[in-house]
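Is S-adenosyl-L-homocysteine placement plausible here? Inputs below.
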Amino acid sequence: MKVDDAREGLDIQSLYPEELKTKLQAMGEKPFRAAQLFAWLHQKQAETYREMTNLPEGLRERLSKEEPLTVLEPVDMRESRIDGTRKYLFRLPDGNVIESVWMKYHHGNSVCISSQVGCRMGCRFCASTLGGLTRSLRASEMLGQVYRIQKLTGERVSNVVVMGTGEPLDNYEQLVRFLRLISSEQGIHISQRNLTVSTCGLVPEMYRLAEEKLQITLALSLHAPNDEKRQALMPIASRYPLREVLAACGNYFEKTGRRITFEYALAAGENDGGKDAEELAGLLKGYNCHVNLIPINPVKERQFRRSGKKMVLDFQNKLEKCGINVTIRREMGGDIDGACGQLRKSYMDNQEKNL
Ligand code: SAH
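Reply from A.M.:
I modeled the complex. Tokens:
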């Protein structure tokens, strides 16, 4: 694994095995202790040094003082009565709260994690961006969401999607660390093919990611068939025109062999018409891709409404007739306050009221 500059000031759970070895050697420890410690942190997901019983007591005491562990504290959980989906709210060591979602599918359990506290991308239909960006998460805080949920549910997590609050490519170094650590054979070992990163389309980072030699799926939030409509929904579209974003997607496919997923949130009267579908089909012609239609989750601070069932099906049919592979996102946990970031938002609104 590559060592990069982002290790400065990192907590111990965000370090690669080689970095852990260097750290322990600098503390005067034998190199094999690093493998033991890594297994405790990432395979057994220990939350205290106390439980690491095969490490010498002196070392455990020293680590407790010098390298406090990053532990996520669950502060709220809501479970859907419809499909068992659970939304967790976690408190980070600095007091910030983040949201993660656990979903059960027939092919296994999936966790949707946050990559930042808040977001600065400003997509007009999204709840996560309403308060702006507070800070990016460390790799350990992304890992912690998966580890904690696996412990709390007692069930193995087989898929992770980085589709919660935040723009993952706006937190590039920590994201890549997270992806390598979560797929590490010495850790929880989730296959890279079962990892998906969703981006609003940060073009330079998409090129960079294509060079990382990762087998993950890249999902692009497209949401519109042309620049004008995309700019009305997503401020980032004014920085990177569709032509550039799609070229970056093409490059990702070429370099990794991984088919791109295009996400398209349908908002009534905005981007869900027959003409939009035709234009979209033209735009994606020749791409080896998959389109995921998401009926928009209305956010009360925003004016967007969800497209009707018939509109969604018509939209799907039109794309399929043009030979495009389409799915409609199965709605999960519709009764527990759908849209990303809404549980966190209602928690924070309540905190404010109580002050
Ligand atoms: N920042 C990343 C990942 C987080 S959002 C991105 O933009 O892709 C995950 C997906 O949910 C994105 O496709 C995003 O556009 C979409 N999304 C956000 N708010 C939504 C809402 N209210 N209804 C439906 N989809 C939404």
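Short version: Residues 13 and 140 are 5 Å apart (CA to CA).
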